[in-house]
Q: What sequence folds into this?
């Protein structure tokens, strides 16, 4: 189970009405991930993928606070991080499918995406020291900019994470660590792989920690904005979200119990938002589903990507 | 000038010339200046860019990779090259791959300096030459410190590559002179390869990186004086991709070729060099390229035991003699 921060269980009406484009972005990510699983099911995708179903609100909330000059580092479960920053479903799907117009010519695939100001890699914990290095660069060359790195609860088993946290604290780096703690590392419950708490680990390095249980984009931003303002001044932060992974780790590998999956479903922003703001939801949900289907049709018909080698 | 001073001067020059260049490592700040004093004077002159770090080889290599991905030149000092094993992941899985895995070529100007080699009694975990583990990694080049190659030139070359480089520094070379007297031989250069020889048509060619070059030179002298065997020594600055051209070896007409290095046996750099030479020189050599290296053993601490494991000048002399007299 994810950590029980305040507001983990949203009361009725707890999700505030979002501007249309914010809702569209949430729905874009949701339908993108659903379409991916469908493509896999039909055998039309190569390799593997890790969807962020249920966690879409986190990158949407965080991205709304980031600036162009900030740098984002993502992980294996990164489609939402990318779409929230660039709103580019064509480029991402082309990358995943190895089609023309792919962000990285189809070399990186789902887990290795690089753009100006954005980088993801598939190795757990590896990105934290890199993010610290990028933060060190930004501190010298672009004061006020931050490096924002998304990791999961499972990454906290990696030693490199602690080397980076130590450096970030020592050197006062503008580093925002966004932890999507969905309570399960692939198939291993957090209770079986993480002693103590992430908050306690942050405290051990003298780092600020903010626990966020809310599913509400507006509320999350209100809580995170002042903390992020201090990151920009060189006070690194661990922002830990109680996240809810609706889907399997990758494709069909969900070994959680029925109550655990039910707990995740009960915290799905999608259903809650549909219930609380039915009119607005209805206006955009089907439209985004259709939009993504059109993207799938268009990108699927493209020729294979070309790569001019190393 | 000693090799250590030349290396120190090169680092000063790199940091002076490039306002984005960084140097990171453990205990590198003044007045200590690094375990081998290579970074002396740098942190006082460039306090914001010469950063002494916690004992975190993976972390600081990752930090350097982050700097390099932002366009900065980044140099990491491993206190002992053995510790680069702790940085294998950021170096191999991120720094080297970032050059190409994001679809278009990205410059990653990163040099990881690795004080390597034995002969100083530091024992099994502080004496290794681990370069062989970094061969054949796409996007990663391997160089070795050499008294015959000016360090600034080598650093400029490595940073201009736009790919991460592992730079092995045999610790015993630090206190040796730059451009040592090679009498009775002469020294010239063929591209990045230094050549020490008497005769353009020697009996044999010995290929050896900078760290073992003085032992090879000593063997060449004793082979000449005692056995009238004429050798040519080829000392490449870049180990991988292999800089010694088979054609250059072929031009010497030598029928015996040796590769000397301090790596332990098995999967060596020499095996890679030999393979490349065999592809061109097969049938023209009197016997396969002879690999001279340390034994298949941990490197002991006690001097008499360490000497038995590591290749000495006498080892090279003996191996050459055995091959030619066979």
A:
């Amino acid at each position: 189970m994810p950590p029980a921060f305040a507001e983990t269980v949203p009361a009725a009406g707890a999700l505030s009405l979002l501007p249309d484009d914010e809702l569209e972005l949430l729905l874009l990510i949701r339908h993108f991930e659903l379409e991916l699983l469908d493509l896999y099911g039909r055998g039309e995708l190569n390799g593997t993928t890790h969807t962020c179903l249920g966690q879409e609100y986190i990158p949407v909330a965080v991205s709304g606070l980031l600036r162009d000059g900030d740098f984002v580092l993502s992980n294996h479960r990164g489609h939402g991080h990318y779409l929230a920053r660039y709103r580019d479903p064509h480029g991402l799907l082309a990358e995943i499918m190895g089609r023309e117009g792919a962000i990285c010519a189809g070399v990186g695939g789902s887990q290795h995406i690089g753009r100006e100001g954005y980088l993801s890699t598939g190795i757990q914990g590896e990105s934290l020291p890199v993010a610290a290095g990028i933060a060190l660069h930004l501190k010298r060359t672009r004061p006020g900019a931050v490096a924002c790195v998304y990791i999961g609860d499972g990454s906290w088993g990696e030693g490199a994470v602690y080397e980076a946290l130590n450096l970030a604290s020592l050197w006062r780096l503008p580093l925002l660590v966004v932890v999507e703690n969905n309570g399960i590392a692939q198939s291993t419950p957090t209770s079986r792989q993480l002693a103590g708490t992430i908050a306690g680990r942050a405290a051990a390095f003298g780092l600020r920690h903010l626990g966020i249980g809310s599913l509400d984009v507006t509320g999350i931003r209100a809580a995170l904005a002042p903390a992020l303002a201090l990151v920009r001044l060189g006070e690194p932060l661990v922002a830990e979200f109680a996240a809810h992974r609706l889907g399997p780790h990758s494709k069909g590998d969900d070994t959680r119990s029925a109550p655990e999956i039910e707990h995740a479903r009960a915290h799905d922003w999608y259903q809650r938002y549909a219930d609380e703001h039915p009119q607005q939801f209805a206006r955009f949900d089907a439209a985004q589903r259709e939009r993504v289907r059109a993207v799938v049709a268009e990108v699927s018909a493209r020729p294979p990507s070309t790569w001019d080698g190393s | 000038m000693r090799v250590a001073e030349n290396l120190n001067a090169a680092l000063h020059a790199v940091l002076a010339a490039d306002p984005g260049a960084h140097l990171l490592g453990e205990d590198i700040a003044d007045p200590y200046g690094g375990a081998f004093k290579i970074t002396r004077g740098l942190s006082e002159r460039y306090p914001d860019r010469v950063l002494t770090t916690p004992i975190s080889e993976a972390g600081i290599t990752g930090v350097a990779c982050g700097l390099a991905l932002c366009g900065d030149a980044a140099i990491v000092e491993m206190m002992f090259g053995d510790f680069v094993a702790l940085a294998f992941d950021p170096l191999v899985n991120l720094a080297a791959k970032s050059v190409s895995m994001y679809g278009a070529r990205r410059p990653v100007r990163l040099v990881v300096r690795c004080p390597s080699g034995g002969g100083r009694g530091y024992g099994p975990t502080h004496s290794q030459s681990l370069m062989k583990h970094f061969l054949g990694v796409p996007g990663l080049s391997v160089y070795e410190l050499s008294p015959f190659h000016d360090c600034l030139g080598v650093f400029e070359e490595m940073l201009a590559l736009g790919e991460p480089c592992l730079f092995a520094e045999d610790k015993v070379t630090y206190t040796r002179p730059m451009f040592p007297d090679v009498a009775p031989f002469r020294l010239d250069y063929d591209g990045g390869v230094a050549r020490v020889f008497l005769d353009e048509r020697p009996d044999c060619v010995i290929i050896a990186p900078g760290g073992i070059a003085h032992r090879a030179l000593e063997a060449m002298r004793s082979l000449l004086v005692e056995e009238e065997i004429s050798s040519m020594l080829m000392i490449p600055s870049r180990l991988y991709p292999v800089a010694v051209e088979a054609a250059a070896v072929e031009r010497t007409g030598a029928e015996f070729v040796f590769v000397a290095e301090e790596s332990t046996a098995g999967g060596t750099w020499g095996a890679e060099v030999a393979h490349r030479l065999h592809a061109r020189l097969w049938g023209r050599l009197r016997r396969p390229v002879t690999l001279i290296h340390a034994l298949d053993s941990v490197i002991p601490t006690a001097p008499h035991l360490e000497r038995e494991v590591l290749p000495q000048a006498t080892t090279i002399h003996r191996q050459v003699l055995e091959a030619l007299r066979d």
About this structure: DSSP finds ten helices and 13 strands in chain B.
